[in-house]
Amino acid sequence: MSVTSLQEPAWLREQKKQAQMAFDASELPYWDRTEIRPFDPTRFAAAVSPAYDLPQLPQDVAKRGVIVTDLQTAAAQHGELLQKHLGTVLPASRGRFEALHAANLLNGVFVYVPKGVEVEEPLAVTCNVAGQGALSAPHMILVLEEASSVSVVQRTEGGRGCLLLPSVEVVLGNAARLRFADVQNFAPDAFNYTVRRGLLARDSSLEWVLGDVGSRVVRANTESVLNGAGAESRSMLVFFGSGSQHLDLGLTMSHTGARTNANMLTKGVLKDRSRAVYRGTSDIEAGSKNCNSQQSAKTLHLGGEVRSDSIPALFIDEYELSAGHAATVGKVDEEQLFYMRSRGLPEVEALRLIVEGFLTPLIDQIPIAAVREDLAALIDRKLAGE
Amino acid sequence: MAEIDLRIEDLQAAVEGKAILKGVNLHVRGGEVHAIMGPNGSGKSTLANTLAGHPRYEVTGGRAVLNGEDILSLAPDERAQRGLFLAFQYPVEVPGVTVANFLRQSLKAVRGQEIPFAEFRKKLLEKMALLEMDQSMAARYLNEGFSGGEKKRNEILQMSMLEPKVAVMDETDSGLDIDALKVVSEGVNKLRGPNIAVVVITHYQRILRYIQPDFVHVMVDGRIVRSGGKDLALELEDKGYEWIREAVAETAQTGAN
């Protein structure tokens, strides 16, 4: 049974019913490198609604038709708009967990920017899952009409012992520009299956800024579908694993339009017995002439008990293009630590300097100051052992 | 002015279970420069690393008492905070951490308080000029891509910034050409005075022409077998380490009979 709430309009109730049917009909997918069993939904209590802190829109911004609201309100007040877009980028048919998400959708955030409207100040959203040992499906949908622009920052937390299924759907009109930052700091015992996907029309631009710090196990993919000619996308991913965390993080750039441009930059640090799997995929379809798809992933190992796999992939059906990838793993060894400690630096301080030196070149590129500071502070805390 | 007094008593140490130091005795005070010479494998570098607290060197006996406190049970960073400094034979590369930032954090750690940026910068540029180091070195990653000479200068730069009570220089002369050796030695000589004790570990006599020691000790097989004034270094250069080995063996035999 799908989970419903009283305020839901009929179309949404129907959409969720269909999603539940899709889930029931779906088979368990095959996952490599990440254990799927802990993600069995029958181990968790019925879905709980995520709670949101939403930004107060400045009056002039609200007056120009910009909407930032929770899904319940959106369904009641902007039903037509929401119905037009919800579930179009990430339909339940995409897979078992996408279906599970759609069937258990209880709350989320709807962001809408009308044609030609440019919002200067970044909008900050906090998502908190208060339930324990339950399932929860936070949803974020961002729709930017032609030539509009906005920056949205989401910070997630909570979800103790939960199965979390966060989704982010992005629809960009021609020449629209979105910066979306997602700092994932869910509880250290949460199981997290995240999907983010954006559809880019001609000359639009999508910048993902992803910080993965929380959760016990994460399986995530963030995809830009570069449909329109001249569209461009950049992903910046920073992760920090500690304890026995397992972070399976994917970035995908799907080039279907000509002259599309993509860049994926990843830097991650692993401590204690944590493990990371990085999957960077450039998918270049026939006809997407003169596109460019680049990626680099760098991982820093603190100690010998961590493990990381870097899996860059390039699928090419087109001849005229440029693509490349680079992956490196660095290690902090005993000699470096001893050298630094012999100058008076305690071990934690020495590691902090090394990690800072490693991550700063990427963190400095994050265009939103609040995200830079938030990420740096979270990483500092994890380095010190929380 | 704090008196400086380091007493190493019957120090024994092992690496991977193999005994290297077999009872080292050495007394070093502020204002003094000691040279420790010896053939390869005699335990000179082990002595340096054991004093600094390298985790691979296991202390199996003895003490090293700095101003009344046995430092051998302290962590490497705590030893540095007490005023011990080791100039590494092979300085380690640390990518991503600039020379300036590293020095600023280290200085803060050994002093136990933040140092104002302007003061730090002034001091850093002064010391770099003294060591004929280009200012741009400060912004480079610690030892990464440094030439052998640059690494050694950087060690002396750290030493002069951190102002230790006891500085142990582990084969600082190795890999230096004569010009670099002069510059490095000059840097060390500028630091000499009652507020520092210097232990120069070397295989060759060459560096002792520029850094004149007050005492020279010869190490063989994990022990200091002979101590004297700076003439001992010259004698050693003249006669070679074999001379010492034979002299020691003779003494041992006489003792046994």
Would you write up a description of this structure?
The complex is a heterodimer of chains A (386) and B (257). Chain A contains 8 helices and 20 strands. Helix content of chain A is 22%, strand content 41%. In chain A, the strands form 2 sheets. In chain A, strands 2, 3, 5, 6, 8, 9, 11, 13, 15, 17 and 19 form an 11-stranded mixed beta sheet that branches. By secondary structure, chain A is an alpha/beta fold. Chain B has 257 residues and is α/β, with parallel strands linked by helices. In chain B, 37% of the residues lie in helices and 29% in strands. In chain B, the strands form 3 sheets. In chain B, strands 6-9-10-3-11-12 form a 6-stranded mixed beta sheet, sandwiched between helices. A 4-stranded antiparallel beta sheet of chain B has the order 2-1-4-5.
Question: What distinguishing features does this structure have?
Answer:
heterodimer; A: 386 residues; alpha/beta; eleven-stranded mixed sheet; B: 257 residues; four-stranded antiparallel sheet; globular
Alpha-beta content class of chain B: alpha/beta
Q: What do the pLDDT scores of chain B average to?
A: 94
Strand content of chain B: 25-35%
Rg on CA atoms of chain B, Å = 18 Å
Summarize the biggest pleated sheet of chain B: 6 strands, mixed
Q: What is the largest interface, and how many residues per chain? A: A-B, 21 and 31 residues
What is the topological layout?
The complex is a heterodimer of chains A (386) and B (257).
Chain A: H1 10-25, E1 51-53, H2 59-63, E2 67-70, H3 71-77, H4 79-85, H5 96-103, E3 108-113, E4 123-129, E5 135-136, E6 139-144, E7 149-158, E8 163-164, E9 167-172, E10 177-186, E11 191-200, E12 205-212, E13 217-226, E14 232-241, E15 246-255, E16 261-270, E17 275-284, E18 291-302, E19 307-316, E20 321-332, H6 334-341, H7 347-363, H8 369-383
Parallel strand pairs in A: 3-6, 4-7, 5-8, 6-9, 7-10, 8-11, 9-11, 10-12, 11-13, 12-14, 13-15, 14-16, 15-17, 16-18, 17-19, 18-20
Antiparallel strand pairs in A: 1-4, 2-3
Chain B: E1 5-15, E2 18-29, E3 33-37, H1 44-52, E4 57-66, E5 69-70, H2 76-81, E6 84-87, E7 94-98, H3 99-111, H4 117-130, E8 141-142, H5 148-162, E9 166-170, H6 178-191, E10 197-202, E11 215-220, E12 223-228, H7 231-239, H8 241-256
Helix pairs in contact in B: 3-5, 5-6
